[in-house]
Amino acid sequence: MRKGFLFVGLMIMLLGLLGCQASSKPLEPDQRPNQVVDPSASDYPAEVRNWLNNMKPYQVAGVIERGGKTYFMVSGGEQRTGGHEVKISRVSSAGNQLTVQVDFIKPDGPATQALSYPYVVYVMDKSFDDDKDVVFVNSADNKRIPQIIGCQPTRPFLDSSNSIKIIEMDLEDNEVEVEGIARVKDGTVYYRFINGEGQTVSQGKVTAEAKAPDWGCFELDDLERPAGATHIELFWMDPQGQLREDIVRIPL
User: Fold this and answer.
1) Which of the 8 DSSP states describes residue 145?
2) Which of 11, 68, 139, 198 is deepest in the core (most CB within 10 A)?
3) Cα angle value 135/136/140 (rounded, 5°)
4) What is the pTM of this model?
5) pLDDT tens, 171-190?
């Protein structure tokens, strides 16, 4: 009989702990949201898991909507040790802006000597008002946290460099379309078509939706593939040395 009571007691404690690990309720002005700590859980959309995996090396924030819910995500970037945490401490709404206060917490003692990638996800049980701007702010100094503006990386990157990430590329009827995000000082992403010898066949540029330190979405729409082109390269230009930097080369 005593073993039966112990078993029931342990089950109650376990259920209680599981119930404390996630929050999924509407955001209200000046509330202090609980933290969702496990993006690998089966009830999270693949888009959320892909976003976190894609952006885990960087301190960056983003917002996506799926299935009638809105997901606010913050990556703390790559850290040299364990023990780092990211928490959303407050959310406030004023006019057309929603401000998300974020705490970046360092270990308060000895920490595991291994790379870690802290993050936080908060779920709002409704679609977000597109007329509102979302701003993520570091609570420690009240400075903006870099964000992804425009399209979000909700699928694994097709290819990438440090500051240019390719989300999707299509080649159909000899027309090329590319979608990606870039963190570039002036927001300009350059591209060129090259042949098998690496010579430029055609070139151009496009402006991303944001400049560094933010990441901005960019799109190349209905570009005609030039005769002889075997690859497309995307990069940014060093304004002083006029050198191509962070090149992403994709075969056609």
Assistant:
1) P
2) 139
3) 135
4) 0.81
5) 998 999 999 999 999 999 99
